Automatic annotation (TrEMBL):
Span of domain 14-3-3: 31-256
Cross-referenced SUPFAM superfamilies: 14-3-3 protein
Annotated family: Belongs to the 14-3-3 family.
InterPro entries in the record: 14-3-3, 14-3-3_dom_sf, 14-3-3_domain
Protein name listed in UniProt: 14-3-3 domain-containing protein
Organism name: Zingiber officinale (Ginger)
Annotated Gene3D superfamilies: 14-3-3 domain
Origin: domain of life: Eukaryota
């Protein structure tokens, strides 16, 4: 059993008993069970280690991404059934879509509650604060993807505030080439493009992050260098997708060769998913495209996840 620590927000140098329980489950990819164990740690009101926050981020991301994909598929199917005049089939699809959306709502609200009540109040390191405000922004954004009316407005507003809080801390605590700061810029730009319908702000944010990080890449460690260059590639690819929607605007990025394969340049709208894994076998990076949709990513312990 995992006991509480007496010192609030105390950093730990050794693996917690709960984390030791979780690590074998990484091989089984039982995300729901993994998340339950990490939530036990989070509710101790102590600052999570980078490894613990990575497991929390990967676990929730894998739980929610399948449902987000299902909801998009069901929504498209619903539109087709309506267009064909198949009202009965359309109603069946709507019912199923709503059940998936209920699951998404439950999962998002569950994590947002843990972040607000336990994790953020216990976070003292700038890296952790940025990480979890970014995660808060992400999960409110996921709600805004399918909510309507006042619920959508509230989710979008909360997402914006969280991203702004993360950005404010990142500007003072993390260098421009830091993977967490770059991941924040990536996801914040996606928020502007998809939720706020503002390609101008999305492109400005992505371009600014790219330009500031690029000259300082060589100062990073090998692992951070790989993570940051991957995020730069995703930023570049998103700019390639987004700038055609801006009259008279063209991307000015230089092409940057990646040491681990691929190019930090526009790869076009269709390429296969690429997965990198870190030393404990968890998802380090996932890059996908869906037609003209933006790129999505999760990078290592920094949890750069769209």
């Amino acid at each position: 059993m995992c006991s509480s620590q007496s010192s609030r927000s105390r950093r730990r140098d050794t693996m917690s008993p709960c984390l030791a329980m979780v690590q074998p489950k990484l091989l089984l990819t039982n995300w729901k069970e993994m998340v339950e164990h990490i939530k036990i740690i989070a509710r101790m009101d102590i600052e999570l280690t980078p490894e613990e926050r990575n497991i929390l981020a990967v676990g929730y991301k894998n739980m929610i991404d399948a449902r987000r994909a299902s909801r998009r598929t069901l929504y498209s199917l619903e539109q087709k059934e309506v267009a064909m005049g198949s009202e009965q089939n359309a109603r069946m699809v709507v019912d199923y879509r709503k059940s998936v959306e209920d699951e998404l709502t439950r999962i998002c609200n569950e994590l947002l509650s843990v972040i607000a009540i336990h994790i953020l109040p216990s976070s003292t390191a700038g890296e952790s604060i940025v990480f979890f405000y970014k995660m808060k922004g992400d999960y409110y954004r996921y709600l805004a993807e399918f909510k309507t009316g006042n619920e959508r407005n509230e989710a979008a507003d909360q997402s914006l505030k969280a991203y702004q809080a993360a950005t404010s801390t990142a500007m003072t605590e993390l260098p421009p080439n830091h993977p967490i700061r770059l991941g924040l810029a990536l996801n914040f730009s996606v928020f502007y493009y998809e939720i706020m319908d503002s390609p101008e702000r999305a492109c400005h944010l992505a371009q600014d992050a790219f330009d500031k990080a690029l000259p300082e890449l060589n100062t990073l460690s090998e692992i951070s260098y790989k993570e940051s260059t991957l995020i730069l590639q995703i930023l570049r690819d998103n700019l390639t997708l987004w700038t055609p929607n801006l009259p008279g605007v063209a991307s000015k990025n230089s092409t940057v060769e990646l040491p681990f394969g691929g190019w930090c340049g526009g790869l076009g709208r269709e390429h296969r998913t690429r997965v990198e894994r870190n030393e404990i076998g968890t998802c380090m990076a996932v890059v996908t495209t869906m037609g003209s949709r933006k790129q999505e990513a999760m990078v290592g312990e920094h949890g750069c996840n769209e």
